[in-house]
Structure formats: C-alpha cells, structure tokens
Amino acid sequence: MNTTNPLNVLVYGATGSQAGAVPTFLLAAGHQPYVLTRTADKAAHHARAGAIVLEGDMADGNRLREISDGMDAVSLLIPFFANPAEVANYGRQAIDAAKAAGVKLLVWNTSGAILPVRTGNPSIDVRIDMQQYLQESGLPHIIIQPSVYLENLLGPWTAPFVANKNQVAYPVPADMPVSWIASDDVSALVAAALERPQLAGSNWPVSGLANPDGPALARAFSEGLGRPITYYAMPPRDFGGILDQAFGPGAGAAAASEYQRMWDFPEQRPSFRADMQPVLAELPVQMTSISQWVTARKALFSAPVTA
C-alpha cells in the first residue's frame, strides 16, 4: 500500500532533464517538493507550479543537513558530469544529511546502469562506490537504474541529422538494440517509488518497453514525424569530435572509446533492456513510446537545425 499522506520531498537535480519532472509528478499527487538549486532563477518554473525552491550546493554538507531537516523523503540525482571524486562527495553528503535528518526513504536515480564489475573508468565505477555507501548507510532506499535516455537523441550528434538529412544518427551499430527510455517516465517512476516506503531495498534497472535496433528506431522516428527517416550508425570517432566541439577539446575521447568497444567486441555489448513487468506491477506508470516522444518534440527535429 502506498502512502496517502502528503510528503515533504527534497529533490536534487530538478533543474535538469533527468529529474526535471519529479516535482511535477509530486505536486500532481498532492505532495510538497523542495527543489535544491544553486541559483533560484533556474527553478523559477518549479516555484510557479508550487514547489519550494532552496538555494544550496551539493558540495556544502552543512547546507544539505540544514535543508534535509523536516523532509519525509529524498529524490537523489547526482551530477555525474562532474569530477568522479566530487561526484562521490556529493552523493555521500546527501546520504549523510538524509540519514541525520531521519528521512524515511531515499530514491536514487543512478543516471545509468550500475555495472556488476569495475571497468577502470572512474566516471562509471563511481556508481558502484555510491551504491555500496548507500547500502551500508542503513538509510531506507530504492535504487532506479535507467537504461539510455531518449533525450540523448536531442544532442548535436543526432537532432541536426534528423532535421537536415532525415537520418537518426547515433554511434552504435545498426544491429545493436537499445531500450531507450524517456526522462519523464523515469521521473514518474521515482515519484511513484517515493510514495511506497514498503519497497525499500528494491534495486531496479528500468528501460523503455521497446528494444529497437537502428532501423527499428528509425521507423519509430518516421512514425512520430510523419516522414521517412533512416538510421545512420555514426562512427564513434565522429561522435567524439562532435562532443569536443560541444563541450571542449578532449570531452569526447572517453565516450568515443566506450562506443568503439561496442563495434569491436560485439560479444561484450551491454544489454539495455530491463524486465519492466515486475517494476510496473509495483510502480504503475504509463510508459511513453518512442514515436510518442518524437511527436511531442517534432519541432526540434525539423529543419534547419545546426549542430
């Protein structure tokens, strides 16, 4: 039985796309979200909707302890684009603050899969460290591990190709299936989990319901946009070059290397598909299809779009 009492929920990461809809779902369910942000202006839309905006920095443990007091639950998202050492510090401080405040449940959106073994890449392995720290903390928690966000397809490595060339471009081989998931669906799962403290201890990989390879992804785009779209398996080195242009020299090297492994070692390709039946039995969320997601963003995939 999920809780029927209104909850005070501290939400991390709500000014970004991955957790941006968590406050919306909480408000719709009658709960009070408290949105942490470095700059209040970035969360003005949440404030207008009814969320309470709190300024603070995840690097400031004292501030996190202060704002965690009085919270019933926490929606945790850690900014994994930061230095891995900083990421680990952010996560530990948020967990410590929640535990000190007597928070009844923390739901962690891991922003990707927690791999079973270390890879040697600190940016990936830090999820293993954070999972261990959370489990050892004794804080009641639920872990939600999303597969690959559909929002990745809005980046300059994909959207301009769809708009200008009618190609959905991504650096995975055409025969490799990927179970894309909408960030709003992950937010809905997080919000539903926050209402169900009896599920503490659950650790769920989550994904979309479809598992398309490249051509099937293109067909979903064709359906969503109402025009023919084909799949372009972008060489990983080209993908890395676009990342370098978007985020600075060297930004794309690690990502390009990870994708190249999917080409060079097909037998080692990760599976992004999760068994969603038991998840949705506990968290009854209406999932978004790829074509529905594309249709809702039709203008973003219409020419001209620059990289």
Automatic annotation (TrEMBL):
Pfam families: NmrA (PF05368). The keyword Endoplasmic reticulum does not apply. Residues 9-242 form the NmrA-like domain. Gene3D superfamilies: NAD(P)-binding Rossmann-like Domain. InterPro entries: NAD(P)-bd_dom_sf, NmrA-like, NmrA-like_oxidored. Keywords: NADP. Belongs to the NmrA-type oxidoreductase family. This is NmrA family transcriptional regulator.
